[in-house]
Amino acid sequence: MIDVKKPHQRWVLAGLATASLLGSAACAASPPTSSGAGGDAANAAEPATGSAESNDFTDGSYSATGSYQTPGGEESLGVTITLASGSVSDVQTEPMPSNPTTELYQGKFSSGIGGQIVGTPLSELSVDKVSGSSLTSGGFNDAIEQIKREAAQ
What is the pLDDT of residue 37? Predict the structure, then answer.
């Protein structure tokens, strides 16, 4: 428990609490991309509902740019996926932020995405949230859908 004795400390703590709540509300403003259940499991790659099998995709490297909506407007994220035996063997992202907040969240997402999806079959790839960034996953999933179409040809 924090013992607050000075009035200015109360204002600082109240401001921090408000900022935290507003940030949480902004992250929750977008609908989830899958119906995964509970806790931190939302940080992991979730199976997609499509019927494509891993062997339906041609191995190689694929790139796409996905877009998504934020409270500040439309944002984009570049994604490059390498497939081996139909599964993700490498992932690179190219943050394309238009403001400091987006830069922060795209950076967090980019630093955590590899650990979440490497080894996942492309047919099962769909991400809800990575490293606290839930909106960026919308742009990532948009790029993945483009990659799935290209890799299936």
Answer: 34
